[in-house]
Design brief:
Helix content is 78%, strand content 0%. By secondary structure, the protein is mostly helical. It starts with a helix and ends in a 12-residue tail after the last helix.
């Protein structure tokens, strides 16, 4: 009963604050804007190619990178969502990732018998699953606009769904890290900074050492671009599946770690203010 009430509290707080709608609008907006922007840049360079040829500049590589297919538009959207969209999401859920501890709004519920499980479990369900759903919707939105503006339709429903799910899992992974650090320390802002820095720096570090993206849950979004085109073999499917399983296992560990820390905390009323 207590857990059900906490689920309702978290859901209503997320909805009534309007943050779930802001996050959804921003991420879908990023998907649409960057899909259109990619097409616009491609058209610009195509139109300017004769001019650049006259002055001795070769810009043919730009068009090759941007492409002229639906998958290229979706790929550009995924790349931006995995960075900009993730940053927006992490910052917007600060209040639910331990931010309420800093405001001391959990003191009374804790003293009234709020269990750690009831406090932690709803967070690890509502926010990760929300961003999973939003990511999938955003990728489908990018597919819809890409189908209208690109000439070559080289994707399938299954490919788009798989790409959206992998992007969502990528963002779920960082959400769980944020929730764990934030609820454990009560410093949600610092937790968000750590997660954002990790999302930007860890892929660069792994790339510098030639470790690649296989079995690396920090860079799962890179698989989205692979599956959206549908050109993957059995070996790649196995690598993606293994990476997803590793990510899910780490997310489960993060949940139990957050629960353990909450169980280990004691309420200290010895000072002038009640502190967790």
């Amino acid at each position: 009963m207590q857990t059900k009430a906490c689920f309702k509290k978290e859901f209503l707080a997320f909805r009534r604050s309007g943050r779930v709608f802001v996050i959804t609008a921003v991420i879908i907006g990023i998907a649409l804007i960057y899909t259109l922007f990619s097409k616009g840049v491609g058209l610009f360079f195509d139109a300017m190619t004769p001019v650049y040829d006259d002055i001795g500049l070769d810009v043919s590589g730009v068009s090759d990178i941007l492409g002229n297919s639906v998958s290229s538009g979706i790929t550009q959207a995924i790349a931006q969502i995995s960075v900009s969209g993730l940053i927006v999401f992490l910052l917007m859920i600060n209040s639910y990732a331990g931010g309420e501890q800093k405001k001391r709004s959990v003191i009374i519920p804790k003293t009234a018998g709020l269990r750690s499980f009831s406090y932690i479990f709803p967070k690890f369900i509502i926010y990760p699953l929300s961003i999973l759903a939003i990511a999938i919707i955003a990728v489908f939105a990018s597919w819809g606009i890409s189908s209208l503006i690109y000439d070559v339709n080289d994707v399938s429903f299954a490919g788009v769904l798989s790409a959206g799910a992998l992007l969502g899992l990528h963002m779920m992974f960082y959400a769980c890290i944020h929730l764990t650090i934030g609820t454990a320390t009560g410093r949600a802002a610092r937790s968000a900074i750590i997660c954002i820095a990790s999302s930007l720096l860890v892929p660069i570090i792994f790339g510098a050492f030639g470790s690649g993206n296989v079995y690396n849950p920090f860079t799962m979004s890179s698989f989205s671009a692979t599956v959206v085109r549908g050109s993957i073999d059995l070996a790649e499917i196995g690598e993606i599946a293994a990476t997803v399983l590793i990510a899910l296992a780490i997310m489960a560990i993060l949940y139990f770690l957050a629960l353990f820390v909450q169980n280990a905390k004691k309420i200290d009323n010895s000072g002038n203010e009640a502190r967790l």
